[in-house]
Request: fold
Amino acid sequence: MLTYKDLSLYFNGLFEGSCGVEAVMKYEIRYKPSYSMLVVRLDQGDSITAESGAMTYMSPDIDVHTRMRERSILGTLGLTFLGRQSFFVNEYIARGEEGEIAFVSAPVGDIEVLEITPSQGYIIQKAAYIASTQNIDLDVKWQGFTKGLFGQGLFMIKVTGEGLLFINTFGAIDKHTLKSDETLVVDNFHLVAFTDTCQYKVTKFGGLKETLLGGEGLVTEITGPGDIYIQTKNLREFVDWLWTMIEPRVGARAR
Reply:
């Protein structure tokens, strides 16, 4: 028998529904921390939005609607070409009495839930998004397209609104809570998310020699107060390592 975690959510910007009862969404994150899968139980009329391609299975009485990730075409284009994310997201709505749906991400790793409130949003890595409840906005225009690149092709998105945001990581999740004026230096490819209460600055790793030879490239200095989420594995390094295994065989077959 599955045990789902009940969490009070606020839909349509209201703390209570028209009947005076808080809406409750039930979810479970299975197989943590290496092969996490998000399983959501939707009551009739409930909905959840997810990254295109993230769904693994769902009940037959759940309807799916595909829509642009942002309300404006320019915002959607920004996410697609700069963030390399898909044009569209899928919105899943339970039409029957109750339905179940599950989501996973491409990287082998963990899934975490972040609570978004009007007073606290998050800045997340483009590839970290997996799903969200209603009234969650993904904004690419908050810092401009050039700054948004964050160096080395890494793109960050600002998340605001009210509800839940589900993120995924490559490897396990390492959370740090910074006090006011406390600073942490994070490699860009290990950085997953941080609260928008933090201040940040993208810098080179050490001097020119360290940047070119130290293997770190650009890093982000993040100053609290706020939370930082770091992934324990670096996808770029993993791909480079994998290529060292594959390249000799590719070269041999090409001869």
